[in-house]
Amino acid sequence: GQVAELKAAGVTVTALGFGPEYNEELMAGIARRSGGNYYYIARPEQIPDVFRREMETVLGVWAKNARLTLQLPRGCAGRQV
């Protein structure tokens, strides 16, 4: 339920699993319901790569479903947008 609330607020969750108690079904469900990703990290040296991939994703999105509406005065026309 909390993950659905986060998604409704525009927040995605990336779930990271560490160690032998990692519950892939739970982590995948959390990530899927929020539109995020999930990873199993078997070795500590994998952590920087996971964070790099996630940051590239975040930094690569500028806008989703953007719309622009122009209301120009009578007699004016847009030449370039």
Can you tell me about this structure?
The chain has 81 residues and is of the alpha+beta class. Helices cover 40% and strands 10% of the residues. A two-stranded parallel ribbon has the order 1-2. Helix 1 (2-8) packs parallel to helix 2 (24-34). The longest helix is centred in the middle third of the chain and has 14 residues, at 47-60.
Rg is 20 Å
Q: Per the principal axes of the C-alpha atoms, what is the gross shape?
A: elongated
Report the structural category.
alpha+beta
| Largest sheet composition | 2 strands, parallel
DSSP E strands, number: 2
Please tally the helical runs, counting DSSP H or I stretches of 4 or more residues: 3
* Distance linking N and C termini: 42 Å
Strand and helix order: HEHEH
Strand order of the largest sheet: 1-2
User: Spans with pLDDT under 50 lasting ≥5 residues?
Assistant: none
Strand content: 5-15%
The average pLDDT is: 88
Can you tag this structure with a few keywords?
single chain, 81 residues, alpha+beta, two-stranded parallel sheet, 3 helices, 2 strands, 40% helix, 10% strand
